[in-house]
């Protein structure tokens, strides 16, 4: 996404995103997101407010689409994220575009089954964004498999840990769960606890596009002025 030498990260979402991902790839420590949230127009208080991640995703896509107009990457958001579903109304086929879908998970054993029930195209699960908490507050974190291998990673604030695939895809449904009995020979009532972790947003990649979306990014792929600027700012 084109940026100029005069752009400021706190005022440019594209530059703030480029700087964030550059540091994530080349830094050995955790990376702050302050410049990115500033580019949203947020002050120091806004990041601590409860925000809806789906709405934020749509606003972010709209902002990026606007910045891409009349550039060589115009239409990229559309190509990467837009899908279409068909509504059947009085014998008329109506196609509607979408960037995200709300899935019915009732009766499904895991997130894969819920997606297969609603979508016919071939997709592969890339990440699971989890909300832990209740309607009045909580915390977001994510399970991601960056290379689409079987290894999942949990991104929880500044901590990144390897996780079992089952934890990412099958244990984020909230509700009540039972603990295994420690003395199965006794007639003990099962211990139940409430799981406050719920899969809030799933990110899938079309099978036909995964080689383009999940690809290696080297320094030579970054324009020179941006590469030198980010190196200087991050001290890498």
From TrEMBL:
One of its GO terms (biological process) is protein deubiquitination. One of its GO terms (cellular component) is nucleus. PANTHER family: UBIQUITIN C-TERMINAL HYDROLASE 12, UBIQUITIN CARBOXYL-TERMINAL HYDROLASE. Pfam families: UCH. It comes from the Eukaryota. Residues 1-207 form the USP domain. Belongs to the peptidase C19 family. It comes from Vicia faba. One of its GO terms (molecular function) is cysteine-type deubiquitinase activity. This is USP domain-containing protein. Residues 166-186 are annotated as: Disordered. InterPro entries: Papain-like_cys_pep_sf, Peptidase_C19, Peptidase_C19_UCH, USP, USP_CS. Transmembrane segments: none annotated.
